């Protein structure tokens, strides 16, 4: 292998490590929440903001971060984001109060908002061959997805042996490796056209994504009858509508609205949003099933997600083999049907079925995700020119993030509604607040009948949620099979007349 080829694949490995860190940070905090409540004297609102602060900053600032990379240099902004992510991780680890941790989590989200789209946008710089670029995208997407189930596993192990700050310090060595590799191996690139960053568009997009994301987080926590939650969602939608209006009129728009007219970007983005919707809903639900029904601790819950990682690896390997031979329509359609099969199988879970069924359907689910996500992202990226790859990648990732947030809210509400309906006479606080509270009360009171009812009600809600996701994937698979066409242009053609590369 030539030295240049080695450098490119080493650079991809560094970017994959950075994205693994992002995936870890999304879920690693879930296992530390009980410890944080005690050590930082955090109330329920503070515990919610530990997660929400990161999510909101991530969703709000992706679009401006992508434009900054296009204007001032993607490598430069990516390096700054990596350094900021490392510093914020240290600040999180040594926070002495709930307020300090929330502020540090906001900074962590700001850094992640630049890391996610810009680490993707440099792939066309490194890999000009379409087949190599698709393989690189597969590795990039898989590294992010693998980090999600690894978070509870690694976090649970660290909490058993060290103090809670260790769940943030694990980011530091990964960030150092990523920063050194990006600095030495990734060439600089920026838009070949000098343009002013659309500050008004940046403010409107940030405010709109902030309102939309926070509104659905609030609705997911407080129920669909929360008036303030709907008002916040409505304000977010209205602000995004103004943002789109402004993008059609400004000389230097933050995003290229013509992308939505491109079939590849439109299909790839829609499928990516659907998978994020189902994936985040699954991550919200299955760990609760492990702990409240199977009775395992946080580390045991994380370890039981290992079959999902195995499925992801299998699915990503299938993409590498099948995509060049069968084409994107066949691969995405097959992946969506595999997803529907895994989710549908999970919908037959009972309190008595045990772990074996969950291991089976999460493996199938992982394989479907490993097939669909890289192919869908590659399909969308195929419509991006190197000129605005930063802002285009940011748009794709922002929409995926919004889909995941809305998925948690919608599917969480479906689960909660069925759970409360099946509680019968037990539909009262604190049992109605959630399965963890209900199971804890039943175990404390020594009432096996109450515990059985709580567990049955939760499993019924989980099955309803999984069946809904399965139906959505099945319909999407049928639609894809009938209407998705092969892209007319190769993926992400790098046009040196349009984009400037330095290094």
From TrEMBL:
Keywords: Cell membrane, Membrane, Transmembrane, Transmembrane helix, Transport. It is found in: Cell membrane. GO terms for cellular component: plasma membrane. It is a multi-pass membrane protein. InterPro entries: EmrB-like, MFS, MFS_dom, MFS_trans_sf. PROSITE patterns: MFS. The keyword Transport applies. The keyword Mitochondrion does not apply. The chain crosses the membrane at residues 9-33, 45-65, 77-96, 102-127, 139-159, 165-187, 199-217, 229-246, 267-286, 292-314, 326-348, 354-381, 465-484. Its main location: membrane. One of its GO terms (molecular function) is transmembrane transporter activity. Residues 11-488 form the Major facilitator superfamily (MFS) profile domain. NCBIfam families: efflux_EmrB. This is EmrB/QacA subfamily drug resistance transporter. It comes from Nocardia fluminea.
